[in-house]
Amino acid sequence: MLTRTLAKNKRIAMIAHDNKKQELMEWSKYNKVTLQKHEIFATGTTGNLLEETLDMRVTKMLSGPLGGDQQIGALIAEGKIDILIFFWDPMAAQPHDPDIKALLRLGVTWNIPIASDRSTADFLLTSSLFHETYEVKIPNYSEYLKRKL
C-alpha cells in the first residue's frame, strides 16, 4: 500500500443537489468557524452559496450537470482533494447520475473520507482525525495497470 498525508488544513470538496443545498448551507453555517480553517472546493451554485454562507473564498468548478462533478473527481484522482462532502438527494433522479457514480467511485478508489448526509458530515468534522495530519492508505494499482486486456 502507498500512503498520502492529509495536512492539518484539509482541502474539502462540497457538493449538494438542488433539494439539499439549503441543508448543506445550514450545516456549513453551523460549522463555519471550523470550515474557514480549510480550503473549500465546490461545484457551481453550491460554491456561490458557500462563499456567502462562510464569508470566504471558495474554489468553484462548473455546475455538476455541466461537468463540475467530473472536475472534482479529477482533483480527487490527482490527490488535490482530501475530503468529499456531497449532500445528494436519493429521491430525485439526476440527469448526470453516471457522473455522480463516477465521482463517488473515485473517492472510494483513492480512499478519501466521504460524507453523503448531515449525520456523517457531523461525525467526520468532529473526529479528532479531522483536526490533525493523517496518513491515508492508498491501494497500489500498479498490478491493475499492468494487466493485459
Automatic annotation (TrEMBL):
EC supergroup of this enzyme: lyase
Documented EC number(s): 4.2.3.3
Reaction(s) the record says it catalyses: dihydroxyacetone phosphate = methylglyoxal + phosphate
Residues at the catalytic site: 69 (proton donor/acceptor)
Keywords: Lyase
Molecular function GO labels: methylglyoxal synthase activity
Signal peptide positions on this chain: none
Residues holding substrate: 17, 21, 43-46, 63-64, 96
Domain spans labelled MGS-like: 4-149
Gene3D superfamilies linked: Methylglyoxal synthase-like domain
Superkingdom, natural source: Bacteria
Function: Catalyzes the formation of methylglyoxal from dihydroxyacetone phosphate.
Family of this protein: Belongs to the methylglyoxal synthase family.
NCBIfam families the UniProt entry points to: MGSA, PRK05234.1
HAMAP family: Methylglyoxal_synth
Protein known as: Methylglyoxal synthase
Originating organism: Lacihabitans lacunae
Gene of this entry: mgsA
